[in-house]
Design goal:
Dehydroquinate synthase-like, alpha domain; 13 helices; seven-stranded mixed β-sheet
Length: 368
């Protein structure tokens, strides 16, 4: 097991990464909470079938009485109605202020559970146990929690850091292929914005990564966690620098919203958003054609969509961008690329952004 520390003073925490370490969850939690008897686990209907019993057994062995709450799988359930359901179940399960709340699942479970932890009884200890690649490299680290609103993605949320993150890369073996590839999009993002070395590694060893080579998986997950930890330590609440993590997300979130969170996985939408962002950057004279081609080619090799279907109208995408929570004074802090590993912010209106929606970035196809 390897440990990455997120250094945030009194809110610092460890990210434990390894193979087969799900069995250690109870012990790791007991070290932090020696006198607590009751814990709650939130999972979804898909992950619960695979890992619920294993996690409950690990917690029981460590002396915890475990209350499990299950919600349906899918981004469309990350909303206020299911958040209210969580609150009801936490009350029903007699969860107290010292009781840790464990998110077992992907980014959706992590987001909604984290927001419940931040707000129930003014704050419960929060633990992330991510089971998807996307959650392991991105969503479980950094303290962003939220639910969606019909007007836009993640509009209702809070910054609330976990006390512990436990990443067992063996859980990726049970992940549906499409979900795994969606997570690869976020891995590519880290290479593009922060690490030429990671990007080159992905270019060279993408087939091995796609075949879930265990040692490479662990290395890639650890590297992404280290990169994100550095960004979060620099700017915990996204006052400025942390916004680089939104590369590809401005249009990506708009694509998700315009398709009612039903057509694309988050990583697929971000992949299209990243391809568009390098297209925009190149059109604005910020990056070379070579940089644009390297990013687009790697996304395509990873089996990710890079062309936005025309079934998503300009008007629906415009509404999605205008509703983005990062809009200030009518402009978006748009993450552009100058070269692999170097970004810059351009402040653009939604109309200005969508003015670049041409030149191969949109097709008549329906995507996945």
């Amino acid at each position: 097991m390897e440990i990455v520390t997120v250094n945030l003073g009194s809110r610092s925490y460890s990210i434990c990464i390894g193979r087969g370490i799900l069995a250690n969850l109870g012990r790791l939690l007991r070290e932090q909470h020696p006198t607590v008897s009751r814990v709650a686990v939130v999972t979804d209907s898909v992950v619960g079938k695979i890992y619920r019993e294993r996690v409950v057994a690990a917690l029981t062995t460590a002396g915890f009485d475990t209350w499990v709450i299950e919600i349906p799988a899918g981004e469309e359930h990350k909303n206020l109605a299911w958040l209210a359901f969580l609150y009801d179940k936490l009350i029903e399960g007699r969860i107290e202020r010292r009781s840790p709340l464990i998110a077992l699942g992907g980014g959706v479970i992590g987001d909604i559970t984290g927001f419940a932890a931040a707000t129930f009884q003014r704050g419960l200890p929060f633990v992330q146990v991510p089971t998807t690649l996307l959650a392991q490299v991105d969503a479980s680290v950094g303290g962003k929690t939220a639910v969606n609103h019909s007007a836009g993605k993640n509009l209702i949320g809070a910054f609330y850091q976990p006390r512990l993150v436990v990443i067992d890369v063996e859980t990726l073996a049970t992940l549906p292929r499409r979900e795994f590839l969606a997570g690869v999009a976020e891995v590519i993002k880290y290479g593009v914005i922060l690490s030429p070395d990671l990007f080159s590694l992905l270019e060279e060893q993408l087939p091995a990564l796609l075949h879930l080579t265990p040692a490479l998986l662990a290395t890639v997950v650890k590297t992404c966690c280290q990169l994100k930890a550095l960004v979060v330590e620099e700017d915990e609440t996204e006052g400025d620098y942390r916004a680089i993590l939104n590369f590809g997300h401005t249009l990506g979130h708009a694509i998700e919203s315009a398709s009612e969170y039903k057509l694309f996985r988050h990583g697929e939408a971000v992949a299209m958003g990243m391809a568009f962002a390098v297209h925009l950057s190149h059109q604005r004279g910020l990056c070379s054609a070579t940089t644009k081609e390297r990013v687009s080619r790697l996304l395509k090799r990873a089996g990710l969509p890079i062309v936005i279907p025309k079934t998503l109208t300009r008007e629906s995408l415009l509404l999605g961008i205008e509703a983005d929570k990062k809009v200030a004074g009518g402009k978006v802090k748009f993450v552009c690329i100058e070269e692999i590993g170097r970004t810059r912010f351009d402040y653009l209106t939604a109309s200005e952004i969508l003015g670049y929606l041409r030149g191969g970035t949109q097709s008549s196809g329906g995507g996945h």
